[in-house]
Amino acid sequence: MKQSYQDIVSKNSPKENVFMNAVVAFISGGLMGIIAQYLIDGYSALLDISTKEATVCMLVTLIFLSCLFTSLGFFDKWVNFCKCGLIIPITGFAHATMSAALEYRKEGLVTGIGMNMLKLSGAVIIFGVVSSFVFSLIRMVVGLI
Amino acid sequence: MIYLNAFIFAGIVCALGQIILDTTKLTPGHITVIFVVVGAFLDVFNIYDRLVLWAGGGALVPITSFGHNLIHGAIHGYNTEGVLGLFSGTLDLTAAGISAAIIFAFFMSLIFEPRD
């Protein structure tokens, strides 16, 4: 009896969390998308620049905001609540860089901040560069054939 | 209309990442790396370009657009400078994001105290 009850509990409890987490991530990630599109439209109308340049402005703005909020201390709580809703957008990249820099600042400028800042986000850059090199080689070869 | 598309696309990407994170033992680092590689892969056949046209900012803000920009830089470099362009052009379009993250993080870590 006890065994079967615990089986039921262990089967049911994590599934609900997965669903709820996915819904929260869907909504928060979607809101990030809307904010990004709003910023792109706003910048291209306000500064009279092309969409491509407005995209760069949008990325820099979001990176600045998430760095600021991380160092003010309340972005960690948002990330804990939204999880992938804020980790998958570019804010997660900035958050990883910023929190690593804050965490290691006590160890000094070079050995602390300099050596550890890209500890978490370096993986994104490295795998991105390597995979884009391999894929563009593939595209090159396919294009030649 | 593009705002609705942006909401749906960015939301689906984030929900997918959350489901992968919850059902497997991968860490958030693995998830972001997977999405960058997927974004680069989708651009081998120009699929991501269409998604950007459809969803606008919703496709540009997830980390998948990082891979998309990396491979576009590499292809643009190859078209203008040849094989050497694969090396010099790869980081062209993403340089702004990486530099901004490093510069802001450096100066803010000097200004602010870490809080837990």
Task: Give an overview in words.
The complex is a heterodimer of chains A (145) and B (116). Chain A has helices spanning 2-46, 51-72, 75-82, 84-87, 90-103, 109-116, 122-144. Chain A is an all-alpha fold. Chain A has one domain (2-103). In chain A, helix 1 (2-46) crosses helix 2 (51-72) and helix 2 (51-72) packs parallel to helix 5. The radius of gyration of chain A is 21 Å and the shape is extended. The mean pLDDT of chain A is 88. Chain B is mostly helical. Chain B has one domain (2-111). Chain B is 78% helix and 0% strand. In chain B, helix 2 crosses helix 5. The termini of chain B are far apart. The chains are: A mainly alpha (145), B mainly alpha (116). The interface between A and B is large, with 74 and 68 residues.
Can you lay out the helices and strands and say which pair or pack?
The complex is a heterodimer of chains A (145) and B (116).
Chain A: H1 2-46, H2 51-72, H3 75-82, H4 84-87, H5 90-103, H6 109-116, H7 122-144
Helix pairs in contact in A: 1-2, 2-5, 5-6
Chain B: H1 2-23, H2 28-42, H3 47-55, H4 57-60, H5 64-81, H6 83-88, H7 95-111
Task: Provide a short characterization of the protein structure.
The complex is a heterodimer of chains A (145) and B (116). Helix content of chain A is 86%, strand content 0%.
Q: Keyphrases for this structure?
A:
heterodimer; A: 145 residues; mainly alpha; B: mainly alpha
Low-confidence stretches of chain A: none
Helix share, percent of chain A: over 70%
Please, how many domains of chain B?
1
What structural class is derived from the secondary structure elements of chain A? mainly alpha
Instruction: Compute the separation of the termini of chain B in Å.
Output: 41 Å
Q: Tell me, briefly, the overall form of chain A.
A: extended
What is the radius of gyration of chain B? 17 Å
Which two protein chains have the largest interface (Cβ within 8 Å of the partner's Cβ), and how many residues from each? A-B, 74 and 68 residues
Shape of chain B: globular
Q: How many distinct folded domains of chain A?
A: 1
Oligomer: heterodimer
Radius of gyration of chain A, in Å, reads 21 Å
- Element string of chain B (H = helix, E = strand): HHHHHHH
For the largest beta-sheet of chain B, the strand count, sense and barrel status come to: none
What string, H for helix and E for strand, traces the elements of chain A in order? Answer: HHHHHHH
- The helix-and-strand class of chain B reads mainly alpha
As a percent range, the share of strand residues of chain A is under 5%
Average pLDDT, all residues of chain A: 88
